[in-house]
Amino acid sequence: MEILEWIRLIVGGALLLSGLIIFLVELYGIFHFRYVLNRMHAAATGDTLGISCSLIGLMIFSGLNFTTFKMMLVVVFLWFASPVSSHLLSRLEVTTNENLKNYCQVYDSLGDLENELKEEREKEVTGRDEV
Prior knowledge:
This protein is mainly α. It contains four helices and no strands. The chain has helices at about 1-30, 35-60, 65-95, 110-130. Helix 1 (about 1-30) packs antiparallel against helix 2 (about 35-60) and helix 2 packs antiparallel against helix 3. The longest helix is centred in the first third of the chain and has 31 residues, at about 1-30. The chain is elongated. About 10% of the residues are buried.
């Protein structure tokens, strides 16, 4: 039984240490990159992975109980919330930055994108009929 406790200690400690290392790499990336979208990517990826590793390490230390279940719910929530919020912030940056409007096309709504795709399909169909 003592060997299982040592294994649990080593695995939990390794996950906590890896989460700390991921946070440090994320922090370096945030201050190292010059462009805001690169910084946001480093922050979002680091947060999702670092918090997941840290909380899984804490779950291993805690064992099977209600606290572990709550930590698992926090991990799942962060897996969904962090990428979505980063995407919305990056879309706001692309929409408001005048320098990026030359390099990418910004759609105001999904309706614009659907209309453009529909027009492309119609062109393909009419182009095939003519040949």
